[in-house]
Amino acid sequence: MTKQSTTRRTELANRSSDGVEVTLLWAQSDGIDEVVVSVSDRRAGAYFEIPAEPGRALDVYYHPFAYRDRSTLDYQDDRLAA
Asked: Could you count the other beta carbons within 10 Å of the beta carbon of residue 69?
């Protein structure tokens, strides 16, 4: 029997402007802590998540598009666009 993996996310900060929502999250999964920045860009219909080193988390939060190439989840769907 395999153990189910559970992930708990806690929102640390959130901001939105002009159709872009950025959220700083603390994620706990199987005893591992991680900081993640999620971005929902309703203008372009895009969503992506960037894992951030704790010492760089606020920089990623304030400048997520500069770190987009490090995203682990990244997709675009025109149906998400406003």
From this structure: 8
CA dihedral angle for residue 38, residue 41, residue 46, residue 51, rounded to 10 degrees:
-20
What's the CA gap between 37 and 29, in Å, rounded? 16
pTM (whole model) above 0.90: no
First to last CA, the chain: 44
Give strand ranges (E) for 1-82.
7-17, 20-29, 32-41, 46-52, 73-76
3-56 pLDDT, tens per residue?
A: 677 889 999 999 999 999 999 999 998 889 999 999 999 988 899 999 999 999
32 beta partners: 29
Residue type, 1: M
Amino acid at 41: D
Tracing tokens 């199987």 back to the chain, one arrives at: 30
